[in-house]
Every structure is written in C-alpha cells, then in structure tokens.
Amino acid sequence: MGNILVNRERCKACALCTLACPKKLILFSQEANSQGFYPAELSSGEECTGCALCAEACPDVAIEVWR
C-alpha cells in the first residue's frame, strides 16, 4: 500500500497528477489554499500502490510518495 502527501501551499491544481495516476485516485480538495487554488489530494489510500507517477508529473514538487 502507498500513500501520498500533497503540500497544499505548493500545489497550484494543474491536474497533471490526476492524469498520471493509473488508478485515478487523486481528486481536488473542496477547500482552497492561501493562493486560491484547490490542491490535489488522495481520495483513497487503500488502493494506492505507491508508484510515484503523480510525484514525477508534478512540476511544483508538491507531492511526496510513501510506501
């Protein structure tokens, strides 16, 4: 099982991580960060494999992957 941590203040909701996730587990938060963006978040950690494709796709290095 894997888990991701998104730095809410670095994320600008570009959606590249949502496209990279093979299981489509990344959604956008309902709450905006201080810059007005709705950052990405993991919908279900139970299905995450920890493949790190989301972190590789993130241009702002806002995602950490843990296995």
**How many strands, what sense, and barrel or not for the largest sheet?**
2 strands, antiparallel
Proportion of residues in helical segments? 10-25%
Helical stretch tally: 2
Flag low-confidence runs: none
According to CATH, the fold-level topology is Alpha-Beta Plaits
Principal-axes geometry comes out as globular
Q: What order do the SSEs take from the amino end to the carboxyl end, as H and E?
A: EHEEHE
Number of β-strand runs: 4
Radius of gyration: 11 Å
Structural class: alpha+beta
Strand order of the largest sheet: 1-4
| Average pLDDT rating | 95
Strand content: 15-25%
Count of structural domains: 1
- State the name of the first-level CATH class: Alpha Beta
Measured between the Cα atoms of the first and last residue, the distance is: 6 Å
Protein architecture, described:
- With about 70 residues, the chain is α+β, with helices and mostly antiparallel strands.
- It has a single domain, classed as Alpha-Beta Plaits (2-Layer Sandwich).
- About 15% of the residues lie in helices and about 20% in strands.
- The protein is built from two helices and four strands.
- A two-stranded antiparallel ribbon has the order 1-4.
- The relative contact order is 0.39.
Layout of SSEs?
Layout (H helix, E strand, L loop, with lengths): L2 E4 L9 H5 L5 E3 L11 E3 L10 H5 L5 E4 L1
Antiparallel strand pairs: 1-4, 2-3
